[in-house]
Amino acid sequence: MGNTTHKPGKNQLDCSMICLQSKFEPSSKKKMNSCCSEEWLKRMDQRMTYIKPIMQSTYGNDSATKWTAYWRTFFIAVAELFGYNNGEEWMVAHFLFKKK
């Protein structure tokens, strides 16, 4: 490989120009993530007549059903992943960066 320097691409972040200002980790990982996702899925299913036009206007009539399935799959996956191993396996953290 030799002596190479990584330069960020067009859509990559140059980490030498930022610093971490704050970090937040929810205290109850399992409850915060898996229960919230299950609630979002339940609400989505209950309000499908309201959500369907939003999906159509966002993703187009031809793709609305597909994207509805993608969102349902996302909520199910999040609930399962964050519920795994009593919520100790995966976590969410929020980071706030500022320019140097």
Question: What does this entry look like structurally?
Answer:
The protein is an alpha+beta fold and about 100 residues long. The protein has one domain (about 25-100). Helices cover about 50% and strands about 15% of the residues. The protein contains three helices and two strands, in the order βαααβ. It has a two-stranded antiparallel ribbon with strand order 1-2. Helix 1 runs antiparallel to helix 3 (about 65-85) and helix 2 packs across helix 3. It is flat and about 45 Å long. The chain starts with 17 loop residues before the first strand and ends with a strand.
Rg, please? 19 Å
Tally the helices: 3
Number of strands: 2
Shape: flat
Biggest β-sheet description: 2 strands, antiparallel
Question: What is the N-to-C succession of helices and strands?
Answer: EHHHE
Strand content: 5-15%
Spatial gap, N to C terminus: 31 Å
Measured as a percent range, the helix fraction is 40-55%
Number of self-contained structural domains: 1
Mean pLDDT over the residues: 81
Structural class: alpha+beta
Going across the biggest sheet, name each strand in turn: 1-2
Poorly predicted residue ranges = none
Task: Give a nutshell description of this structure.
The chain has 100 residues and is an alpha+beta fold.
Q: SSE layout and pairings?
A:
Blueprint: E1 18-24, H1 29-46, H2 48-59, H3 64-83, E2 94-99
Antiparallel strand pairs: 1-2
Helix pairs in contact: 1-3, 2-3
